[in-house]
Amino acid sequence: MSLQNVTTHQAVLGAVIARLRGESGLKQTDLAEALGITPSAYSRMEKGESAMSTEQLRLLAERLKVTASHILELTDEASAALSENSGVSVKSLSREAWGAGAMVAAGFMPIAGAALGALVGNLLQKHFAKGKKNDEQ
């Protein structure tokens, strides 16, 4: 049986936020404090293991000095690019369905954590480089 590489929208959103956090020079503890949650709870959000509320997204955007719509736009762009360039399907899956054993049994290979971060980071690097070129012109 061949496996299809797959991730969740939630995990891509977390990877985008991690990238923006890194670009801003902030630490996970800085953003956890801004949200009023523990660093471990915040870490789970960046890994896509835990969902964030719209209020948390708004507070993150404010702390990162971007708009929530910009974060969601980058997430959409990264999701599309993952599918087109990396062969990774981005799915909306329930937490129960995202268990690694269940995913493999269904023919999916979960892509998360560092692997997803690296893929999204590379895709966003192109986005940021393109934005800097436009700013310089």
UniProtKB/TrEMBL annotation:
Keywords: DNA-binding, Membrane, Transmembrane, Transmembrane helix. One of its GO terms (molecular function) is DNA binding. Gene3D superfamilies: lambda repressor-like DNA-binding domains. Residues 17-71 form the HTH cro/C1-type domain. Coiled coil: none annotated. GO terms for cellular component: cytosol. It comes from the Bacteria. The keyword Glycoprotein does not apply. It holds the Pfam family HTH_3. SUPFAM superfamilies: lambda repressor-like DNA-binding domains. The chain crosses the membrane at residues 97-124. PANTHER family: HTH-TYPE TRANSCRIPTIONAL REGULATOR (PTHR46797), METHYLPHOSPHONATE SYNTHASE (PTHR46797:SF1). This is Transcriptional regulator.
